[in-house]
Sequence to fold (433 residues):
Amino acid sequence: MSPQPTPTPLVTVILPTHNRAELLRRAIASVTAQTYPHWELIVVDDASTDSTAEVVQSFGNARVYRVRLPFNCGHPSRPRNVGWLLARGTYIAYIDDDNAWRPHHLERLVAAAEAHPEAAGAYGGRCHHAPDGSVEDIVDPDHGIDTGDGLHRRDLIQLMPEMWTETNFTNEDQEFWARLQERHPVGLVWVPEILSDYYIHAGNRYFNHWLNVRRHDQGYFSRNASWLDDSARWGAYVDWVTRLEPARVLDVGCGRGWAVRALRERGISAWGIDSSPSLAALTVIPGAFIRATADRLPFANGMFDVVLCTDVLAHIPDRFVARTLRDLVRVCGGYLVATIDCVDPTKEGHLTIRPRRWWLERLVEAGAEPVSALEDNLERERVCQRRDGLELVVCRTRPGDAGVVPLRWEVSEAKQPGAAARWPAAALSGRAV
Fold:
């Protein structure tokens, strides 16, 4: 007698939607096109009033179900939880109505999860499609897990009784996956392959975040090398910061990282943040650089004694300035030192040009206290001078002034040159590192 083939586990796919019929078809089509054969799709209709029902019915697929909620929840977490409670699969996967999967998405993730039964599930990489037509492949296990990146075992409800929550309104997906990884003894298996497509558009929450990214390309650093890499420009700055005797320094908008490297050479635990995708190849601090934006800093409250922010704030759209300043103040437990262009809107990447007084008012609202004596000291020693519209602002902050610490990934510092920086668990808890 020939051996019976091993049955493939059922995957329940949960897709919450509300009035996005024009986008929904692409998402459903990417599920029905999966090479993995054993799936069911639950479309949780969050009280849509458009043609969502007709779009779902048009597929004529018995494995595609639509469940309509009697009222709109206003957030995708509760519809996802409804789907979880209705799921029959061994595994649960999620997809948003405006995104899509690659054909091998489920096949690769199920294979990885089945090969590691001790794990909670698996996740893979994704491709970002920006409104300007550009694309960015993200194949980085520490970049943060989006809704549609992974799958998990259905019985994890015992480990996650609250399931999806709304405590983090804009990043509930990364919060969910981070919480799962934290509670499960093994976590999720990483599949180093692009398995999903994430579309950034004016109708989704990530669009605002995409606007708030100083995404200078490699050409920007080449065109401005004489200014950005000028040792005289940042050398005196580093000398002055060193005299403050900080244990930890964060340089937000660090560019290639010259100042961070100089600080680390002096024994200071310095780190650099920048959002430019080109810096992974150009940075001079491969073990101390992490790609992130100024309004989503992955650190605990008051973790840094000094936070530097040089010619960054003018690059941020006006409507996102307040939350950026709040996050800068939140991670700073000592001095926030910023230089801000208040005059020239023609400089490359500048979006918000406001007078010095306006910036001071916004910083005070964010919980910072300007310290003019230190500003005068910096100018007197010619470390920084107010010229060409570049204003110097030094503020005193207190740990946690601007809010609670966000939940982020929990990893350790990179050891190999060229590797992405990875943060120790103590960085997230607020303990000294």
Observations:
- Residues 231-243 form the longest helix (13 residues).
- The mean pLDDT is 80.
- The longest strand covers residues 188-199.
- The radius of gyration is 24 Å.
